[in-house]
Amino acid sequence: MSPLLTVNNLRVSFPTRTGEVNAVRGVSFTLGRERLGIVGESGSGKSQTGRAIMGLTPGHAKITADSLNFDGIDLLSVSARQRRDLRGKRMAMILQDPKYSLNPVMPIGKQIIETLRTHERVSARESRQRALAMLEAVQIRDPERVFDLYPHEVSGGMGQRIMIAMMLVCGPELLIADEPTSALDVTVQLEVLGILDRLVAERGMGLIFVSHDLRLVSSFCDRVLVMYAGRVVEELPSANLAAAQHPYTQGLLNCLPTIGSHRHPLPVLERKVEWAQ
Length: 277
Hints:
This protein has 277 residues and is an alpha/beta fold. The chain folds into two domains: 5-90 and 173-276, 3-Layer(aba) Sandwich (Rossmann fold); 101-171, no CATH class. Helix content is 35%, strand content 24%. It has ten helices and eleven strands. The protein has helices spanning 46-54, 80-86, 98-101, 108-119, 124-137, 143-147, 156-168, 186-203, 214-220, 247-254, and strands spanning 5-16, 19-31, 35-39, 62-64, 67-70, 73-74, 91-94, 174-178, 206-211, 223-228, 231-237. A six-stranded mixed β-sheet has the order 7-8-9-3-10-11, sandwiched between helices. Strands 1, 2, 4, 5 and 6 form a five-stranded antiparallel β-sheet that branches. A hairpin with a 2-residue loop joins strand 5 and strand 6. Helix 5 packs across helix 7 (156-168) and helix 7 (156-168) packs parallel to helix 8 (186-203). It is globular. The model has no long low-confidence stretch (mean pLDDT 88).
């Protein structure tokens, strides 16, 4: 079976007054109908990789790749209209913080319906029913009440679940989740992960889970890509993360807190120039 997504030698750069900044430098991977984790510290290029796939990179950026292919579609050559048709319908991205992604002056239900009716010809009654069903699918109690609320009237955890509902209402085949649990407490985090896990299993989607939390990714994803300075430095099955070979991955693992052990002084992640070459 051919992969759902193929990324080969993806590069993203931004022109600045002091020269070109290379945010993503030669990233390559394939994605089937599985859960792929991308981890790395802030600034490693994780989010820019996801945005480039979705076509959400700012217009002044320069994007090149040997291939950027989604289900037989060349994402580098499609028109802006084709991109809009794909985005939200067949490809979706959950952004990191719902309070910056949801429209503050539009009721939640209306925002979900807007996403649905942009891509499908459905009646007002059917779109409302599907929006309510999607809110229920992401474990929101009393979806009828939440449907009419505004984003400032819900908690952060509920806002994140609403974002998931909005991105999944059209049944995408590829979902990119950009640190969807970073702003949530542990209990809500587990609920959101459970929702994503169930929906991926039921719908057979391909999921790219972007995070800085190695422990979380190792327990949730099937495979892990480790990024440093815009490059992939290591790729391995999540079950084998403890046996990572690259010193950067080993350093990240070593910095994780361990219950019951005395760690003084705390380990410091050492960086080497050759990792970024």
